Amino acid sequence: HLRVPPTLLRVRPLTCAETRRGDRRVVHSLGDGTVHVSAARHDATFGFSAVFDAGASQEAVFEGSGMRQLVELATDGFSCTIFAFGQTGSGKTYTLMGPLGQSEARPAAPALLGLMQRSFACLLEHSRSRGPGLALSASYLEIYNEQVRDLLSPGPPCALSLRWSKTHGFYVENQLRVDFESLEAIVDLLLQAPLQLSIPAGSRRRRTSAHALNGHSSRSHALLTIYIRSRAPSACPSKQGTLCFVDLAGSERVKDTGSTGELSVEANNINRSLLALGHCISLLAKPQGKRTHIPYRDSKLTRLLARSLGGSGVTLMVACISPSSRCLSETLSTLHYASRARRVTTRP
Ligand code: ADP
Ligand code: MG
């Protein structure tokens, strides 16, 4: 069956800094899944599966996002991908993981936990309620400057090769997969030096550099994949589903961030892969008969996401925006990008 991927919009509150300098709110939620952008020369309304505005709690976002159903589908063997996109500082990491100062490894207060931790908890509940349980493992990769790196492997980051095979499609060679059985273990894996596992922390290793928009700006795309294998009785084939969380690097243009030198190379790579992703999404959005070749090979990001974008997976898109007048042009571009994504149909 055809299924339109749910596209959610989250509008974060104005930050203290934005309020202090007198930024205006130019995005208003109208209820009913629509938002209205009103500024001097712009006046537009956009529709989404759901809109979460500044007052929405992390719990409300989780409960209203359909994440529970996605966890269930992944448990039943589907490939599910959740990706957060938007300008740097728009709340992607907050939505996925909560308010992390990325330099310090401190878990967020329970009420502020993001979609990831809530999904893990949900998954582990499923695992416990099923007779033979589920075998769970995780991999954590980043794409930085068009290089795929393993965030779980010890030692200095080294680039892994992205290969293609007829049976597996695109896959990363030699990526580390770590088994886990508890919420603590997977959260530690994600956030801080693991207690039980002798491997370094994933998120701390993620490439960040400070620039004008966000002190902890993420300069890489991060992909956390949970592999869920049902321990079926030996007679039945076992199913394997995946739940993949993609925290995309910021989409801002080079001139807004004042990036130069190495940073502008990063920004160009980020923009190139987001452009490739947008291109694939808009081609996939065309009616089936009018579809041409989808250029997944244009970037590492689109290769890694090919399966979930291309129709055999279930995708949940979370667009994040700032309500501030100063972010207007990036906000509009995120809203247009998200509107295109809404027209993609997939056949899980
Ligand atoms: P991104 O990952 O898109 O670059 P972050 O998630 O790091 O952005 O968010 C930028 C800042 O805004 C952080 O200080 C974060 O804590 C804050 N923030 C983001 N979304 C919210 C929200 N819904 N409520 C409160 N603070 C938020
Ligand atoms: Mg981030």
Structure overview:
It contains 11 helices and 15 strands. The chain is an alpha/beta fold. It has a single domain (7-100, 112-195, 219-342), classed as Kinesin, CATH 3.40.850.10. Strands 1, 5, 6, 7, 8, 9, 12, 13, 14 and 15 form a 10-stranded mixed β-sheet that branches. Strands 2-3-4 form a 3-stranded antiparallel β-sheet, with helices on one face. Helix 3 crosses helix 5 and helix 9 (262-284) runs parallel beside helix 10. Adenosine-5'-diphosphate binds at residues 12-13, 15, 86, 88-94, 99, 214, 217-218, 250, 320. Adenosine-5'-diphosphate (ADP) binds next to helix 4. One of its GO terms (cellular component) is microtubule. One of its GO terms (biological process) is microtubule-based movement. It holds the Pfam family Kinesin.
Descriptive tags:
single chain, globular, 11 helices, 25% strand, cytoskeleton, Kinesin-like_fam, Kinesin_motor_dom, three-stranded antiparallel beta sheet, ten-stranded mixed beta sheet, 31% helix, 348 residues, microtubule binding, binds magnesium ion, Kinesin, alpha/beta, binds adenosine-5'-diphosphate
